[in-house]
Write a structure and sequence with these properties.
heterodimer, A: 492 residues, mainly alpha, Na+/H+ antiporter like fold, Herpes Virus-1, five-stranded antiparallel sheet, 5 strands, disordered C terminus, B: 75 residues, alpha+beta, 1 helix, globular
């Protein structure tokens, strides 16, 4: 048994050091792992730490599998299913715009139809990890647009499953159209089977790998995940989707939280190796020929993201700042783009996809945190009429501290002392609220009837205030947040 | 939730609780992340962005919480 531990160890260490240096200025880690691989690999002049990347292919596959497995395990199924129609429309618009533009761009490049399909995904699907970290670092967790952003990227992950199910049979290289249709059908049937297992067989799967001891649970977990991923690859559905789906299955078992905790460090290490190995396979000589397409692709992505941000802004009544934040935060590209490039290269598609996606991810990884942090400059040039013309906006404020519906405040005082509809029906109430648009008085959400919210649902009047003594807060049902007067806003 | 506290799901991160302090010049939000960390966001009049964001581990949050609740004292 012989393994080049020196080269591999040095490479991982250097990748970690590079990524740590990048974190100092809040750059994401993924591109640095890849960069270490590119710089110290056989495709670049200078020192070569690992001359044969294929020696590391097993470790890299493990990284890919664990990456998608973890995504499945932590997928917030209930939160997604519970999210409203508006969020699905916003996410649909984001995905449609980005994937559509990516597909057209790919076709325009003329590298081939399959290549265009891969480029659509690589350009269209953002990195959940980068976006989530960015929101925490930019201290935007309390912003009103943040749930929208998180909702979009989670629905995007769901889309990833469907996209992979479509892509894998295409890449598997079916001969005739009939054969291709058969493969796609098989792929989706496999998805349905795994969904069924997630729905009805999760308990059983949980029993198979459960153990009180963390050591054994970790081993059983890795064994099961790798096996399912391998079987999936054997029947032509790709290991990636198998890993994702078994993650969704485990997410529905009682051992979910322990699995999530145990898989995290494993995922971090092996995913880093996956990014490294991807970098090792890149020949810097290839960058020259793809530089112009990459820059155009970055531009296309930027435009479609901002457009999607405006759509989300309109749907959710966000202000300029909110809409700009949506567009520029979801810009991060990383692990998924690299996974798609890996799948494409393994299937023998155009070799330019490697350097193309590598350079694209590198540029956006640096650009997206900078652009997201400076979204206020974009917000300043978004005209009011693109969002909601009739409403008055407070351009700079983050939405959670302001509300876009203040122009619908007509009445602010009332001397009512009872909820008229509760009096009618003989019910009790806890506290009183008043509609700021028409002055209707109703009972609060802790009361049995919650007439105040019912009034909002019937009339669409967004704002209420508390009528309790000593309280002067207001609440907006549409923004789902407490409201105070916009700071620095022109008041008529 | 008690009155004056509003919950918002943050898919993939956790939950956010907006706390009404009965005033329109200050407000706080608490984010409870799935990994156990907590973020305390403080807003005040006159600022577009939060005036302070305190990130705490679960352990630190417990300490602060105990102090705020008045169940912890040494003398």
């Amino acid at each position: 048994m012989h393994a080049d531990l020196v080269g591999f160890g040095a490479l991982v260490l250097i990748a970690g050091l590079l990524a740590r240096a990048g974190r100092r200025i809040n750059l994401p880690t993924v591109p640095f792992f890849m960069l270490a691989g590119i710089l110290l690999g056989p495709g670049t002049p200078g020192p070569v730490l690992v001359a044969h990347p294929e020696d590391l292919s097993l470790l890299a596959s493990l990284g890919l599998v664990l990456l998608l497995f973890h995504l499945g395990v932590e997928f917030p199924v209930d939160q997604v299913l519970g999210s409203g129609r508006r969020l699905f429309i916003a996410a649909g618009a984001y995905i449609g715009l980005n994937i559509g533009a990516g597909l057209l761009f790919g076709l325009a490049l003329g590298w081939g139809g399959y290549e265009a399909l891969v480029i659509a995904g690589a350009l269209g699907i953002s990195s959940s990890a980068i976006v989530t970290k960015l929101l925490i670092e930019l201290r935007r967790l309390a912003n009103a647009e943040t749930p929208v952003i998180l909702g979009i990227i989670v629905i995007e992950d769901l889309f990833l499953a469907l996209y992979l199910a479509l892509l894998s049979p295409v890449l598997a290289g079916a001969g005739s159209a009939g054969e291709l249709a058969l493969h796609i059908g098989l792929s989706f049937a496999y998805l349905v089977v795994l969904f069924a297992v997630a729905r009805f067989g999760a308990r059983l799967v949980g029993k198979v790998i459960d153990s009180n001891e963390d050591e054994l649970l970790a081993i059983l977990m890795v064994g099961l995940v790798v096996l399912v991923a391998g079987v999936s690859a054997e029947i032509g559905v790709s290991d990636a989707i198998g890993a994702l789906m078994i993650g969704l299955v485990v997410a529905r078992t009682p051992i979910r939280e322990r699995v999530e905790r145990l898989v995290l460090p494993l995922r971090d290490v092996f995913a880093a190796v996956f990014f490294l190995v991807f970098g090792l396979s890149i020949d810097v000589g290839g960058f020259g020929s793809v530089a112009v397409p990459v820059l155009l692709a970055v531009l296309v992505t930027l435009v479609t993201n901002v457009l999607a941000g405006l759509v989300a802004g309109r749907l959710f009544g966000l202000n300029q700042r909110g809409a700009a934040n949506v567009g520029l935060t979801v810009l991060g590209r990383g692990e998924f783009s690299l996974i798609l490039a890996t799948l494409a290269l393994a299937a023998g598609l155009d070799g330019r996809l490697g350097p193309f996606v590598a350079l694209y991810v590198l540029i956006l990884a640096v650009a997206s945190p900078l652009l997201a942090a400076n979204s206020r400059y974009l917000a300043r040039v978004i005209p009011d009429r693109l969002l909601h013309g009739g409403w008055r906006y407070v351009r700079e404020e983050t939405m959670s501290t302001a509300c876009t519906h203040l122009d619908r405040v007509y009445i602010t005082e009332s001397d009512a002392e009872a909820c008229p509809r509760c009096v009618e029906s003989g019910d009790d109430w806890v506290q009183l609220r008043m509609c700021l648009t028409c002055g209707a008085v109703g009972c609060c959400s802790d009361s049995v009837n919650n007439h105040a919210e019912e009034h909002y649902r019937q009339t669409g009047h967004p704002l209420i205030r508390s009528l309790e003594e000593g309280e002067d807060w207001r609440y907006c049902y549409i923004d789902g947040s407490l409201v105070r007067e916009p700071m620095g806003a022109p008041r008529e | 939730m008690g009155s004056g506290i509003y919950v918002q799901d943050l898919p993939g991160i956790g939950k956010r609780y907006d706390v009404d302090l009965g005033s329109n010049t200050q407000r706080i939000s608490v984010v409870v992340r799935r990994d156990g960390n907590r973020d305390l966001y403080v807003f005040a009049a006159g600022h577009d962005d939060p005036v302070a964001v305190i990130e705490m581990s679960e352990e630190q949050a417990r300490k602060v919480g105990a102090l705020l609740a008045g169940t912890y004292f040494t003398e």
